[in-house]
Amino acid sequence: MKITGYCKQGVLTLNFNGELDHHSARAAMKALGERIDAFMPRECVLNFKELTFMDSSGIALILRADKRMKEIDGRLLVVNVPAQPMRVLDASGIDRLINISGK
Amino acid sequence: MKITGYCKQGVLTLNFNGELDHHSARAAMKALGERIDAFMPRECVLNFKELTFMDSSGIALILRADKRMKEIDGRLLVVNVPAQPMRVLDASGIDRLINISGK
Amino acid sequence: MAVANYTKIEFLGKSANESFARSAAACFAAQLDPTLEELGDLKTAVSEAVTNCIVHAYPNEIGRIQMKCRIMGDDTFEVSIKDWGCGIEDIKKAMEPLFTTGGEDRSGMGFSIMECFMDTVKVKSKVGKGTTVTMKKKIARKKSR
Amino acid sequence: MAVANYTKIEFLGKSANESFARSAAACFAAQLDPTLEELGDLKTAVSEAVTNCIVHAYPNEIGRIQMKCRIMGDDTFEVSIKDWGCGIEDIKKAMEPLFTTGGEDRSGMGFSIMECFMDTVKVKSKVGKGTTVTMKKKIARKKSR
Ligand SMILES: Nc1ncnc2c1ncn2[C@@H]1O[C@H](COP(=O)(O)OP(=O)(O)O)[C@@H](O)[C@H]1O
Ligand SMILES: Nc1ncnc2c1ncn2[C@@H]1O[C@H](COP(=O)(O)OP(=O)(O)O)[C@@H](O)[C@H]1O
C-alpha cells in the first residue's frame, strides 16, 4: 500500500496504490491523519483508482477519515472505486453515509 | 494453455498462450503433433510471445517437435520467448540444438 | 458430495500473511475457472476470516492458523479457517452487523461481508479453545454463464 | 538462522495442483519483495520438484505432497517438497543432467534447473518411503540492488 497526494486550493487528494487490508491499514490511517492535520483541507478526496484490493479494514479507515473531516467542518469524497472495493462498500451500506463514486 | 495457429506457404505458426507445465504439456504435444501431421510444413514456428510460464516439460515438448520436424525434413524455430521461459531454455542448454530467439 | 481436490495450509497469525492466505485460496480456487468477481468475493471473505484470527483470536501472541480449501464435485468451493485462540462467547451477537470488540480500527462488518459474498457461513467456537469459520460458494460453470 | 515466517501446505498429487503449488510459494515469497526474475526462478524450481512427486514418486496413484516454505532472518527463502512415494535409489545419478526414467515426456532436466535457479538443492530419499527436496535461495534486498 502506497499513499501519495497533494493539496490544492483547499482540496487534499490522496491516491491509494496497492492492497488495503488490516496489515496495511494502520500505516495508511497514520499517513491520512497526518496529511489532514497538516493541510486542514475543506475537502479530502480518496482516489481509489489504483486500489487492487480492499476488505472491511478499508471501511474502518473511511469512517475514521470522514469523522476527522467533519471535525474540521470539511467533507470526504471517495472516487474511482474499482469493482472489488466497490462490492465491499456496497455490502457494508457505507455508501449511504459517504459520497462514493465508481471508476 | 491454449494453442492457436495457421499454416501459410509451408510455414506452420503455432501461438502458445498460458502456462506450459507437466499438466498442460500432454494436450499441447497432441495439438502440436496433429497440426504437423496435417500440414506437413517445411518450417514450424513455435511463437512463445504469450507464454506466461514454462518449466522443463516445455523442453521435452520442444525436443519432440524438433524430432518430428526433422523426420519430415523440416526445421523448427522458437520465437518471441519471454524472460522466464528463456531462463529455462538457457539453463537446459537446448539453445545449442534449436533455433531460439527472444522477445 | 465428493471432494475433488483439497489443500491444507498452515501459517502464522502475522498480518503479513493476510495477503498470502487470500492469494493462496484464490490460486487454488482458480481450478474452478471462476469469474473475476467470484474470485474477488472469495479473497475478501478469506481476508476477513483470517484477519479475525490475527486481531481477535490471538490479541497478544502470534498464533497458528489453519486454512483448508476443498473443491467439491458440484463445483462448490469450501474454505474453513481455524484458530486455537480465545474463542467467541456469543456467536449470534458477534455476527451482527457493526458489532465489534476491536475498537476504532475495526468496522464490525467482517462477518456481514463473509455472509454477503459467500453462499453459507458457519461458525463453531469454544471460549478458550478456538474458532472455526467454514464458508461455501458455488462457482458457476463457464458454459452456463 | 531464525525462522521469520513459515507456511506448511499439504495437497494432492494431481497435475492441476502444479500451478497452485508454485503460485502459493510465490505468494509467500512475495514478503521478501523479490525481483520478477527471482520470483520466476522460485516458481520454476518448485514446479520441477512438485512435478517430480506427481510423475515419479506416485506413478500409479494420487499421493499426498507437503510443501514447507520458510523465510529466514537473513532473507533466505527455503522451500522443502516432500512425498511418501517410491523414493530414489541412486540420488547422484538421478541428479545428472538428462537422466530420466520418465521417457519421452520428460527431459531429465528437472534437477539441473532446480540447481541452476536455487542457491542450494538437497535431496533426501529412501526407496519405498519417499523423497524430500529442500532448496534455498537468498533474495537480494531492494536497497542493495
Ligand atoms: N476468530 C475469532 N476469535 C475470536 N473472536 C472473534 C473471531 N472472529 C470474530 N470474533 C469476534 O466477533 C466480532 C465481530 O467480527 P467481525 O464481524 O468480523 O467484525 P470486526 O472484525 O470488524 O470486529 C469481533 O469484534 C470479535 O469480537
Ligand atoms: N520425488 C521423486 N520420487 C522418485 N523419483 C524421483 C523423484 N524426483 C526425481 N526422481 C527421479 O530422478 C530422475 C531425474 O529427475 P529430473 O532431473 O527432475 O528429470 P525428469 O523429471 O525430467 O525425469 C527422474 O526421472 C526420476 O527417476
Stretches of chain A where pLDDT is under 50 for at least 5 consecutive residues are none
CATH architecture title of chain C: 2-Layer Sandwich
Helical fraction of chain C:
25-40%
- What sequence of helices (H) and strands (E) makes up the elements of chain C? EHHEEHHEE
- Annotated CATH homologous superfamily of chain A: STAS domain
Would you write up a description of this structure?
- The complex is a heterotetramer, with two copies of chain A (103 residues) and two copies of chain C (145 residues).
- Chain A is built from three helices and five strands; from the N terminus they run ββαβαβαβ.
- Chain A is of the alpha/beta class and 103 residues long.
- Chain A has a single domain, classed as Transcription Regulator spoIIAA (2-Layer Sandwich), CATH 3.30.750.
- In chain A, helix 1 runs parallel beside helix 2.
- The model of chain A has no long low-confidence stretch (mean pLDDT 96).
- With 145 residues, chain C is α+β, with helices and mostly antiparallel strands.
- Chain C has a single domain, classed as Heat Shock Protein 90 (2-Layer Sandwich).
- Chain C is built from four helices and five strands.
- Chain C starts with a strand and ends in a 7-residue tail after the last strand.
- Chains in contact: A-C, B-D, C-D.
- At the A-C interface, helix 1, helix 2 and helix 3 of A face helix 1, helix 2 and helix 4 of C.
- Strand 1 of chain C pairs antiparallel with strand 1 of chain D.
- The structure holds adenosine-5'-diphosphate (2 copies).
- The site of one adenosine-5'-diphosphate (ADP) has 22 residues of chain D, from helix 2 and helix 4.
